[in-house]
Design a protein that fits this description.
Layout lengths: L4 E6 L8 E6 L2 E8 L2 E6 L13 E10 L2 E12 L6 E3 L16 E2 L1 E5 H6 L14 E6 L1
Antiparallel strand pairs: 1-10, 2-3, 3-4, 4-8, 5-6, 6-7, 9-10
The structure holds FE2/S2 (inorganic) cluster (FES).
FE2/S2 (inorganic) cluster binds next to loops.
């Protein structure tokens, strides 16, 4: 299957801490902006198909001993709204240790409008200006 590139949004319209649900080639994919970096996951929880786009973004709680815990990586974990499984937004990795399931990740990068105008890109649903930068999904 060939990989196509899809222009999702201008970076100026996609602020940190927000997410976008897009449909490309019949697949629903959720794209996250985590402190200026972009990541994408298939919008289908591997447990039972919940919409990760509707989940709560949180951090990672880890414990080295009973009663002691650390909260880290705020904004980098998505919790499925259906049964609470948690996934690393950057990789799709599950933090349910007994389960190897992983939310499918897709590559995302930022490209200048000047490069995008030359293509090849599919499904451009937004106007592209050479002076701006855009979030581009490969799927
Ligand atoms: S469907 Fe996501 S945790 Fe069950």
């Amino acid at each position: 299957m060939s990989v196509a590139k899809y222009v999702i949004a201008a970076t100026a319209d996609f602020p940190a801490g927000t997410r976008r649900l897009v449909e490309v080639d019949g697949r629903a994919i959720v794209v996250f902006n985590v402190r200026g970096e972009y990541f994408a996951l298939l919008n289908r929880c591997p447990h039972n198909g919940g919409s990760l786009a509707e989940g709560v973004v949180t951090g990672l709680v880890q414990s080295a001993a009973p009663g002691a815990y650390q909260y880290t990586r705020q904004g980098e974990i998505i919790r499925c709204p259906w049964h609470g499984w948690e996934f690393d937004i950057k990789t799709g990795k599950s933090f349910c240790s007994a389960i190897r399931a992983r939310a499918r990740p897709f590559p995302v990068h930022v490209e200048d409008g000047g490069a995008l105008v030359e293509g090849p890109y599919r499904a451009e649903t937004i106007p592209v200006h050479i002076e701006d930068a855009y979030v581009v999904l490969e799927a």
